[in-house]
Amino acid sequence: MEVFPGTQNPADLPSRGCSVETLLKKQLYEGPPWLRDSRDKWPDFELSPDENIIYAEKKKTVVSSLNKKNDEFYNNIPSYKKIIRITGWMYRFYENTKGFNKKSGELSEE
Fold first, then answer.
1. Is the pTM of this model over 0.85?
2. What is d(CA 92, CA 58) in angstroms, rounded to the nearest whole number?
3. Domain regions of the chain by residue span
4. Which long-range contacts (CB under 8 A, 24 or more apart) does 20-27 make?
5. pLDDT in tens, 86-108
């Protein structure tokens, strides 16, 4: 597989800002003129990237993140005992939804 510079690659024209009019005038299916010659006449391309072009293409990325705690629920429950009690009521409700051995009345430590 032969590799040649993007400046001679018609597939790279749109990425280099080629206008639609210019793109329509190009004969993209033919490739660069030297491609029609025999392989021994093809130019010898060095495959070292141009660092200036690479650095010009680099884009800076800024990432911003905001973590907001939703303490609304916890601010409404002032004490540890109250949290335990609410958890107990929730557990009782869950157990009562199963349909058998339903409990009612005050919560106990059982």
1. no
2. 60
3. 11-72
4. none
5. 888 898 888 888 877 777 777 66
